[in-house]
Design goal:
Layout: H1 2-10, E1 26-28, H2 37-53, E2 59-61
Parallel strand pairs: 1-2
Length: about 60
């Protein structure tokens, strides 16, 4: 699903925006039954920065 989101965001919306290029990095974390919202967001943030360090334009799942 993250790949589909990246592809959708990178499609030009108008002819004028066809020359605009960017990448999308996504960090994903499951909301475990234990822990706080801050713990969950910290895991997603860690996964996001892992994605950025390892090639950008990708998605990583928090372990």
């Amino acid at each position: 699903m993250a790949g589909q989101i990246r592809q959708h965001l990178q499609e030009p919306r108008t002819p004028e925006s066809a020359d605009i290029g960017f990448s999308v990095s996504i960090g994903i974390a499951a909301a475990a039954g234990t822990g706080t919202a801050e713990d969950w967001l910290a895991k997603a943030d860690k996964a996001l920065y892992h994605a950025k360090r390892h090639g950008k334009n990708t998605a990583r799942y928090a372990e």
